[in-house]
Design a protein that fits this description.
Layout (H helix, E strand, L loop, with lengths): L2 E9 L7 H20 L7 E8 L4 H9 L4 H18 L6 E4 L3 H13 L4 E11 L4 E3 L4 E4 L5 E3 L14 E4 L5 E12 L5 H10 L4 E2 L1 H13 L5 E2 L1 E3 L8 E2 L2 E6 L1 H6 L1 H4 L4 H5 L4 H7 L1 E6 L3 H14 L7 E5 L2 E3 L2 E2 L10 H7 L2 H10 L7 E2 L3 H23 L5 H13 L1 H15 L4 H25 L3 H22 L10 H22 L4 H10 L4 H4 L29
Parallel strand pairs: 1-2, 1-15, 2-3, 10-16, 15-16, 17-19
Antiparallel strand pairs: 4-5, 4-9, 6-7, 6-8, 8-9, 9-11, 12-14, 13-14, 17-18
The structure holds ligand ME8.
Family: Belongs to the class-I aminoacyl-tRNA synthetase family.
Keywords: Aminoacyl-tRNA synthetase, ATP-binding, Ligase, Nucleotide-binding, Protein biosynthesis
Enzyme class: ligase
């Protein structure tokens, strides 16, 4: 009876969401729906999906000030655009947390107190990027001269005399940094370095894909794990949660934000209690993040949790980035694809399939408009809906299904004999036996690998196999050409084409339900598949449906082309 918790990062509402945010949300939504499908028959299983907005910090404060807007009104408005994206794309979270929510403010204060033994005060000087909300060491900084030339900063730079008009940037993100000198609270990360190394080594799936586990281990083993500044003077940052018992200091936005993963599960004592549901959810949490925030989730967050004596999440799944002409799509650069535009022109299933089929969590990808059209027209209309409509519109597949279902369900030798008999009698082309064999092979592969691949977020591998299935069933249909069969003697062959088209469509719909919740729901209706069967992965074999096929309603369009 698993309790599973899946999270996206909580996004900064300093601008409207773009395709990158949609991607993380879609990765999670599919994972949630896949788990619901997988555990459909386990009435005690619970799957929780949380997302939200990260509303404090300098970045937000400055964005609101620039527009001369009240900061709360500013975040209220932008937070809604993230919610709106979810509702327009049928992304169904259980909680949308905002870090300005009351229960969260209290949770951050309590968490801080629980980490107290590892927190100290010190003078802080360093290069801070407001856009990245993080400090960078000197060797990641360059000065941009008035002629645009970039030079490294010299070792003997006098920090106390850096004038305001000089421009410095961080070399990783190219975002501007400023030099700050101030008194802050610090978290002694190094206290947990060895514990974290052992945890990652003993749990090779803690950080996925494994290349990121290697990156993090290398960092922990080879780079100094400096104290992390976790507060800012309130006079510089007032749009933040105050540090408990010290109103002159404000909690650093990342300390505040990471804590959302606790707030959504309940109070800290409850999460700590081994017998509680909150504890089980916490232990079985999958954080899905972009690689830009690896360090925060794979180093800082587990260390904070160790300090507070709380369970660590099960795993952090790290995905790559969507690029635009080779540059990371980002709100600050404005080089973004707006998912809402695509949702308006196409539909949410098409957008999800288009980006998940054309990407992998391991590699950065460039978005192309053609992905949408190819998915909607090429896959969903021409391959999937066509398979259903061509086998149900002119014909009633009911008898065909009744006749062929038991033969496929029984055993292989019967089927082989029948195919042989059909072949001898009708001299059918080799397409049928070859394609049928391939269908059986793909179904065998899916039966063995679907759960493993979906769990590892390798959705593209699954969608590729599923498209193959549709191609093969369409090929058989085309080859047998039931519309041209008039002869009574050929009736078996005609019925076989109808049965295969319907049954492959049925199986395709079960497997693709997590990615295509809307269109599969409609197709299950057309194919007369009862709810219980549409959620049963054990029925993903030819002949295992109990459906009798529905006469396709005249004029019924599941999905039409977009040109
Ligand atoms: O970092 N490609 O928020 P954020 C793929 N508030 N995914 C992308 C992307 C791209 N080009 N751009 C953004 C923050 N993302 C913090 C998080 S969590 C406790 C606090 C996605 O609005 C990806 O998931 O900058 C990335 O990690 C996240 O949005 C960053 O969102």
């Amino acid at each position: 009876m698993p309790k599973i918790h899946i999270t996206t990062p909580i996004f900064y509402p300093n601008a409207k969401p773009h395709l990158g945010h949609f991607y993380t949300l879609a990765l999670c939504d599919v994972q949630v729906r896949f788990n619901k499908l997988r555990y459909f028959n386990d009435s005690k299983s619970k799957i929780k999906f949380t997302t939200g907005t990260d509303e404090h910090g300098l970045k937000i404060q400055n964005a609101a000030t620039k527009l001369q807007l009240d900061t709360q009104a500013f975040v209220n408005q932008l937070s809604l655009t993230f919610k709106d994206l979810c509702s327009k794309s049928n992304i169904q979270y259980d909680r949308f947390i905002r870090t300005t929510d009351k229960d969260h403010l209290a949770e951050v204060g309590n968490f801080w107190k629980d980490c107290k033994k590892d927190i100290c005060t010190d003078e802080h000087k360093g290069w801070y990027s407001i856009s990245d909300e993080t400090f960078y060491p000197d060797n990641y900084i360059k000065e941009v001269l008035p002629d645009g030339k970039q030079i490294s900063i010299s070792n003997d730079i006098d920090y106390s005399t850096i004038s305001e008009d000089r421009v410095f940037i961080n070399t990783e993100t190219n975002n501007q940094v400023k030099f700050f000198l101030e008194q802050n609270y610090f978290f002694k990360l190094d206290n947990y370095r060895h514990n974290l190394i052992s945890h990652i080594e003993q749990n090779p799936d803690f950080i996925q894909p494994s290349k990121y586990s290697t990156t993090v281990l290398n960092l922990l083993k080879n780079e100094p794990l400096n104290k992390l500044s976790i507060s800012r003077p309130s006079k510089r940052l007032n749009w933040a949660i105050p540090v408990p018992e010290d109103p002159n200091q404000s909690v650093y936005v990342w300390f505040d934000a990471l804590c959302n993963y606790l707030t959504v599960l309940g109070s800290i004592p409850e999460i700590r209690n081994h017998a509680s549901e909150a504890h089980q959810f916490m232990q079985n949490t999958t954080h899905v993040i972009g690689k830009d925030i690896l360090k925060f989730h794979c180093i800082y967050w587990p260390i904070f949790l160790m300090s507070a004596n709380l369970p660590l999440p099960k795993r952090v799944v790290v995905h790559s980035h969507w690029l635009n002409d080779g540059v990371k799509m980002s709100k600050s650069l404005g080089n973004v694809v707006n998912p809402i535009e695509h949702l308006t022109k196409y539909d949410s299933d098409s957008l999800k399939w288009a980006i998940l089929h054309n990407s992998s969590v391991e590699q950065d990808g460039n978005f192309r408009d053609t992905y949408l059209k190819d998915t909607r027209n090429g896959v969903l209309v021409n391959k999937l809906c066509n398979l259903v409509s061509r086998s149900s519109k002119k014909f009633n597949p009911k008898i065909a299904i009744c006749n062929w279902q038991p033969i496929f369900k029984q055993n292989d030798s019967d089927l082989k004999n029948i195919l042989k008999e059909l072949n001898d009698k009708n001299n059918i082309s080799p397409v049928l036996p070859n394609s049928l064999l391939e269908i059986e092979q793909i179904l065998g592969w899916l039966e063995k690998n679907y759960i493993k691949q979906m769990e590892a977020f390798n959705y593209q591998v699954v969608t590729t196999k599923l498209i193959n299935l549709l191609d093969l069933a369409n090929e058989i249909f085309q080859d047998i050409a039931p519309w041209s069969i008039k002869d009574e003697g050929d009736i078996k062959k005609k019925e076989l084409a109808l049965f295969l088209a319907n049954d492959v469509a049925r199986i395709f719909c079960i497997y693709s339900k997590p990615i295509l919740p809307n269109i599969t729901e409609k197709l299950f209706e057309v194919l007369l598949i009862p709810k219980k069967e549409s959620n049963d992965l054990t029925l993903c074999k030819l002949g295992y449906g109990s459906s009798y096929g529905k006469q396709y309603k005249e004029g019924l369009k599941i999905l039409s082309r977009v040109d």
